[in-house]
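Entry 14. Structure prediction run on the chain below.
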Amino acid sequence: MPRLAKRIEQVMPFYAVELFKQAVALNAQGRDIISLGIGEPDFTAPPQVVETLNRAAQAGLSGYTSPAGIMPLRAAIADYYAAQFGATVSPDRVIITSGASGALLLACMTLVNPGDEVLMPDPSYPANQNFVTAAGGIPRLIPASAEQRFQLDAADIREHWGPATRGVLIASPSNPTGASIDREALRALVAEVKQRDGFVIMDEIYLGLYYEDQPESALTLDDSIVIINSFSKYFHMTGWRLGWLIVPPHLEAPVEKLAASLAICAPSLAQHAALTCFEPEVLRLYETRRLSFKQRRDYLLPEFERLGLRVPVVPDGAFYIYADITEHSADSRDFSHRLLHEAGVAAVPGMDFGPAHATSMLRFSYATGLDRLEEAIARMGRFLQG
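Output returned:
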C-alpha cells in the first residue's frame, strides 16, 4: 500500500458529520430525531432562482466560464456589498468560487507558504484549520474567552505573533458562536496585523444573517482584507456550491491564475441562476427568512437559560447558540451522545471547535422550524429533569 500524505494525519476530524450519520441511522430505525447539529438552513433556494437555473440549462449555458466567474454575477455581488454592507468594491476584485470552501482554498494557497503560521480563535469552524494545513501552513488556535466574544483581539496579536506567523483567519459572525467581532476591536486587530505586514482573511458567510443594526463589511475598515462569502447560508443554496472571494487588486491575477488550475470555474449553471438572488422581490423574501431565524433565536435564548444551559455570549448573527452545559455535565461529548440517544435531539459537542472549551460547550443550530425547536426544548426539559 502506498503511504498516505502526512497532512491526512494533521487534518482535523469534524464530529458534527459523525453526529449527523448517527442521527440518520436512528431515523432509519424509526426514531424521530430533531437535528440541531448541522448548520444547513431549512429554507431552500427561492422558486425564482430555480426557474432561472432551468432556463439557463435549456439555453445551454452549462459550459466553462472564466475562472473568476461571469462578470454579471461579479458585478451583482459588488453592488450587493455596496448596498447592504457599505463597502465599495470593483467587480474585478470579486472571484466566484466553488462554495466558501473553494474561496478558502484559493485564499490559503495564495497567501500561505509551507511552515507559515496562521492565527485563529478557539473556538472556530474546524475546516478552516484544514485549509491552512492543505496549503502547508500551521493553524494555531488561540483560546478566546466570552469576554472577547470568543474572538481574537489586538492583545492576542501582540502576544502570539511569532517569527513564523503570517496572518489571521477570523469570522464575523462566527461559527460556532453566532457572535460578531466588535467593530473597534476589529479595527485594533487589523492595525496590529498590518503593522506586522500580515494578512487578514475574514469569513463573512453569515454577515447577511445579522440581527442587530445594519451590518457592515470588514472592508469598510480596511480595503486590503480578503473576504470569504457564500450563497449557502443567507441565500439558502448549500448544495449549489457557489461562493466568492473579494481580494485587493494586487491579488486579482494570482488568485485567478490558481483558480484556473484548481477549479477551472465554479458551477456555471449555478452562477447564472444566482443572478436572480439579487432581484428586489427575491431579496425581500430573503429578508423575511432572516427575520424567521431571528424569531427562532429570540425564542430559544430564554428557554436555554430556563433549562440551565447558559449562553455566555448572545449570538447576534448566524443560526447558532454556543451554550455552556457544565451545570448538567462535565463532558460535552458524553452529554451530546446522551441527548441524541435518550432525547432524540442532535447538538454538536465543543470538541469540534477547539480544545479551549471542548468539554464545557455545545453548539446548537436553529436552522429548523419553530415547531421543531419547541419540541426539542420540551424533550431537552424532560431529559434534564430525568
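The longest helix spans residues 280-306.
Filed with the rest of this week's runs.
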